Fold this sequence. Notes:
It contains five helices and five strands, in the order H-H-E-E-E-E-E-H-H-H. By secondary structure, the protein is of the alpha+beta class. Strand 2 and strand 3 form a beta hairpin. The longest helix is centred in the C-terminal third of the chain and has 23 residues. The radius of gyration is 16 Å and the shape is globular.
Amino acid sequence: VSRGILANVALVLASTMVTEPVEWSKITIQDEMQPREVRTTGWFRLESNKEGTKWFGKCWFIHNLLKYEFDLEFDIPITYPTTPFEIALPELDGKTAKMYRGGKICLTDHFKPLWGRNVPRFGIAHALALGLAPWMAVEIPDLVAKGAIVHKEKEKSGSS
């Protein structure tokens, strides 16, 4: 884990479970995004339901100067923050062995042990920066090389 990445993501200051939905959504947003400036290269966009328990949006990865964009979703489990949530990229479901049913990315070997050592200080920003980002850095170029995913522009020109 890069200490530089970790240093730029604020640690969660409150420890709570998803038992009080309105307060939970405030904690998620305030504790993770405000205490420290998070440097971002603009690689995801997220929003949640009113309760803060279901999150959805887009994430993207630049490979060979082409932007590959994917739907992103996850549910906050009732046992959060003790249990990390599962990040899903549904449109990639079945395209790589490092993925579970429903497009949930495999974080078991690398990220979940790190999460376990840092409960309750890790939150959503950590899962994206230290879980999703490295997964995409490995998997997306491989999927492109295998032809499992094709850039939108190439897809359009190929179907014309």
